[in-house]
Specification:
binds NADP nicotinamide-adenine-dinucleotide phosphate; 7 strands; Rossmann fold; globular; seven-stranded parallel sheet; 8 helices; alpha/beta; 40% helix
Length: 248
């Protein structure tokens, strides 16, 4: 065990000295994850498509050395550029994603491709580019934002459920492949979290399903801090369900 790990005065939940890349940092869960990681001592690489909202997140971060990169992660050229620009990171949190209500009978091939590109292809291939460049440090931590929809059936979100469930397969395989580098790979599966992803009426309708109330971005960011930190050094290949008591 390293001296740092052995030092019982060190807070195992600290992100001091770590660099963390957060996708989807211009909104919702990604924004709060970036803010919380910086507050816990991390240097953060923030990425999203909307430059103005990305700068807004940056303006809320404590500490120095944070970097913003505007990128559309469905584009391989943008993923390559991000992987080139990014310094070696200790943590990678894939928050970028999109949810669209569409019963399977009404699916279009274009709609299916859009879901696949942003929710599956983008995080998997960005991870691949970073690993190829050795840009994820030994003992690093990779987190994929999943959803309770990855674990259970919900009417109208078939393609989204499928992409998030597909990521569970990636998490399990990647965890096995990277364990030799002590890189850990996990998912977080929230139920309804109040973010711009939802309309106000939709959120209101979700309240009755959640005895502990709706989730907040901070709840998910706290889980991300745990999975990024040395406190979770023995945890890999799994996903943390956060469902406010809606019971899977
Ligand atoms: N909110 C929930 O209830 C909930 C529940 C379970 C799981 N999740 C998951 O949590 C993650 C974050 O969701 P959220 O609620 O925070 O959503 P959000 O507020 O709508 O934020 C989505 C983020 O994804 C980014 N993004 C979308 N398409 C992109 C693309 N092509 N390239 C790069 N970035 C892209 C957006 O960037 P720009 O705005 O800059 O385009 C934005 O920063 C998603 O993976 C979602 O599936 C959310």
């Amino acid at each position: 065990m390293s001296d740092a790990r052995n030092d019982r005065t060190r807070n195992p939940f600290s992100l001091e000295g770590k660099t963390v890349l957060v996708t989807g940092a211009s909104s919702g869960i990604g924004r709060q994850t970036a803010i919380t990681c910086a507050a816990r001592g991390a240097r953060v690489i923030l990425t999203g498509r909307n430059e103005e909202r990305l700068q807004d997140t940056l303006s809320r971060l404590l500490g120095d050395g944070h970097v913003t990169v505007v990128a559309d992660l469905t584009q391989s050229t943008d993923r390559d550029r991000l992987a080139q620009i990014s310094p070696q990171v200790d943590g990678l949190v894939h928050c970028a994603g999109m949810q669209k209500h569409c019963p399977i009978r009404q699916l279009t091939e274009q709609g299916m491709n859009d879901m696949y590109n942003v929710n599956f292809l983008a995080p998997v291939m960005l991870t691949q580019r970073l690993l190829q460049r050795s840009a994820i440090a030994r003992q690093g931590s990779i987190i994929f934002l999943l959803s309770t929809a990855a674990h259970l059936g919900t009417r109208g979100v078939g393609p989204y459920s499928a992409m998030k469930a597909g990521l569970i397969g990636i998490i399990k395989c990647l965890a096995l492949e990277q364990v030799k580098h002590k890189i850990r790979v996990n998912g977080i599966s929230p139920s309804a979290v109040a973010t711009p992803m939802w309309g106000a009426d939709q959120l209101e309708a979700q309240k009755a399903r959640h005895p502990l109330g709706l989730g907040e971005s901070q709840d998910v960011a706290n889980a991300a801090v745990y999975l990024l930190s040395d406190a979770s050094r023995w945890v890999t290949g799994t996903s943390l369900v956060m469902d406010g008591g809606s019971i899977l």
